[in-house]
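Hi support team,

I've been running sequence recovery on a batch of backbones for a student project. Most finish fine, but this one hangs at about 90% for roughly twenty minutes before it completes. I'm not sure whether the input is malformed or the queue is just slow. I've pasted the C-alpha cells below so you can try to reproduce it. Let me know if you need the job ID as well.

Thanks,
M.K.
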C-alpha cells in the first residue's frame, strides 16, 4: 500500500490539477506516481519542466532505455513497470530491447555504450572512471549528449527515490501483460 497520499485529480492541490489532467489525457488515466507527486505542486512542476526539456534531448528510445537501467540499479519496481509499458507503447521498444536495457545492454554497440555509462553513473553516483568517459566518447557520444545522459539518469533517480519512499502501488500492467 502506498505510504503517501494519492489524491484524486479533484482533491489534488489546485496548482497540480492542470498537469494531472494533461497526464490523464496522454495516458488515458492518472498513474499513481503522478498522484503522489501532485501532493507538491512545486515538485510536480519541476518534474514536468525537466521532462519537457529533456524531451528535446536524446531520442525517446534512448531516454526510455536509460529509465529502465536506472530503475534496475535503484530497485524501483514502479519505474521498471512504468518504463516497460511506456518504452513499449510509446518508444516502440521490443520485449528484447526492454529486457536488455534493464541489464544495461543493447544490440547496437553505440546504444550499449550509453547504457553502460548510464548504469555506471547511477551505481557510482556520478563517480565514473576516466575509462567510462573514454568508452562512451569512443562510441560516438558528444560531451553534450553525455551531459544529457547524466540528466536523464538524474531525472529518473528522482522518480525512483520518490516511488521507493512512497512504496507507490504499481498501476501499470505487469510487464508480461503489457507486452503480450
Amino acid at each position: 500500500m502506498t505510504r503517501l497520499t494519492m489524491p484524486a485529480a479533484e482533491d489534488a492541490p489546485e496548482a497540480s490539477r492542470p498537469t494531472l489532467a494533461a497526464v490523464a489525457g496522454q495516458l488515458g488515466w492518472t498513474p499513481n506516481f503522478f498522484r503522489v507527486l501532485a501532493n507538491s505542486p512545486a515538485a510536480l512542476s519541476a518534474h514536468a519542466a525537466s521532462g519537457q526539456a529533456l524531451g528535446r534531448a536524446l531520442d525517446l528510445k534512448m531516454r526510455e532505455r536509460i529509465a529502465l537501467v536506472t530503475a534496475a540499479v535503484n530497485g524501483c519496481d514502479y519505474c521498471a513497470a512504468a518504463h516497460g509499458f511506456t518504452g513499449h507503447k510509446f518508444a516502440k521498444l521490443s520485449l528484447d530491447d526492454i529486457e536488455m536495457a534493464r541489464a544495461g545492454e543493447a544490440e547496437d554497440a553505440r546504444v550499449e555504450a550509453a547504457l553502460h555509462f548510464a548504469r555506471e553513473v547511477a551505481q557510482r553516483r556520478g563517480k565514473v572512471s576516466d575509462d567510462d568517459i573514454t568508452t562512451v566518447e569512443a562510441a560516438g557520444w558528444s560531451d553534450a549528449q553525455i551531459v544529457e545522459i547524466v540528466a536523464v539518469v538524474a531525472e529518473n533517480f528522482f522518480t525512483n527515490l520518490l516511488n521507493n519512499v512512497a512504496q507507490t502501488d504499481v498501476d501499470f500492467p505487469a510487464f508480461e501483460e503489457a507486452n503480450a
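--
Follow-up from support: It reproduced on our side and the slowdown came from queue contention, not your input. The mean pLDDT is 95. No action needed from you.
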